[in-house]
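Entry for the shared binder. Reason: the reviewer on the internal report wants the predicted structure included alongside the sequence.
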Amino acid sequence: MLLAIAAIAGASALVLAEEGSTSDKIMAYYFHGSFRCPTCTNMEKYSREAMENNLKDKLASGKLEFVSVDVEKPGNEHYVKDYQLYTKTLILSHVLDGKEIKSKNLDKIWEYARDKKKFIDYVAGETRRFVEESK
């Protein structure tokens, strides 16, 4: 297994990939802009924590990848159109052989932004369901 921590278009990423494997994975994208308020920074931190603490096996196997993306960086603008983004958000995307099959916007992260436990429970639960539905 090849483990790489990489920067994708200036964004931090936790990437776990197995060489030679078919590309069937769930991408968890936290989309943000260049200006980062404390709430937005916490939502990224809580999203990452939800996955690292509750979906370790999926991260370790390469089935799940978490990527933070600044949509204002050159080359990332297309995400705004692709996902009809209007604010910071967490999108789950099922990718098979380089093509997105389906996606889900975890838009309730704003509702739970001030309650870390509810936020993490929501993100972990929705991500688990999305992974299971994508089998």
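Summary line for the report: DSSP finds four helices and six strands in the chain.
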